Amino acid sequence: MMDHVRWSDHPRLRRPVLVAAFEGWNDAADAATTAGRYLLDRWDARPFATIDPEIFYDFSSTRPQVHLADGITREIIWPSNELSAGTLPRTQRDVVVLLGVEPQLRWRTFCEQVVGIARELGVEMMLALGALLADVAHSRPVRVTGTAADPDLVARLGLERSRYEGPTGIVGVLHDACRQAGIPSASLWAAVPHYVAATPSPKAALALVQRTSSLLSSPVLTTDLELAAADYERQVTEVVESDDDVAGYVRQLEERVDELDEAEANLPSGDALAAELEKFLREHGGD
User: Fold this and answer.
1) How confident is residue 277, by pLDDT bands cut at 50, 70 and 90?
2) What is the CA radius of gyration of the chain?
3) Separation between Cα atoms, residue 195 and residue 136, nearest integer Å
4) How do the domains of the chain map onto residue ranges?
5) 56 touches 104 (CB < 8 A)
6) Strand partners, 6
7) DSSP per residue over 34-90, as a string?
8) How far is it between the farthest Cα atoms of the chain?
9) Most C-beta atoms within 10 A of its C-beta, which of 74, 75, 174, 233?
10) Is CATH 3.40.50.1980 the right assignment for the domain spanning 5-285?
């Protein structure tokens, strides 16, 4: 099943959670992969395996890159799906981080590799990070929506059961593979303003980092990401205010978001969600 996994180490982990993020369709404004890389760094995760890209990519579409090592030696950098392992601070569990690029080919085989790794390491849950374009205002807190398929997990964490029908990305296929393998899975999706779709959003990345760390009951220091998010908001505001029509449209979005925020004022706290997640995973592990 794991014919395309290249192991550099076989870590022994304590009740690990898998956190995954992919460049591509599921990564509006680079928010999901930025969050994934940030968490990987904060958790001091170390690489232990990669998934060989050879059969999963159309290299005329996702082209490898040429890199000059030491300014002299030419190296080819191929699309990477790298897995790293670390420890979640202040918890009794470890974490596996998968950062990759959405493949073009053989999605079922690709997901078999990920599920095989998860089984090998005893992963208790897969958490995917994503970002999507939406009618939201850059000047308001980023909306992060959680979805899951398991009814118990949905109820305990106050998530939504996905009712989406239509084209899907690798995240959706990976969720289905986890479901068939009996591995609980959930997603966190950050909403990114569609009128700044081409601009990387550290603000959306920050929201994903904070929601993930809260859910896993493992706080991380985010000072530099907070500064980048504030600078992003300031720059976008300057551009918006230079156009009266755009500024008026954004004000309408702000009013709509404010109404939604009032309706969600009584959502459970991050600590409560983390406690429910821990309880769910313990019960699931005992089945």
Assistant:
1) low
2) 19
3) 9
4) 5-285
5) yes
6) 50
7) HHHHHHHHHTT-EEEEEE--TTT--TTTS--EEEEETTTEEEEE----EEEEEE-TT
8) 59
9) 174
10) no
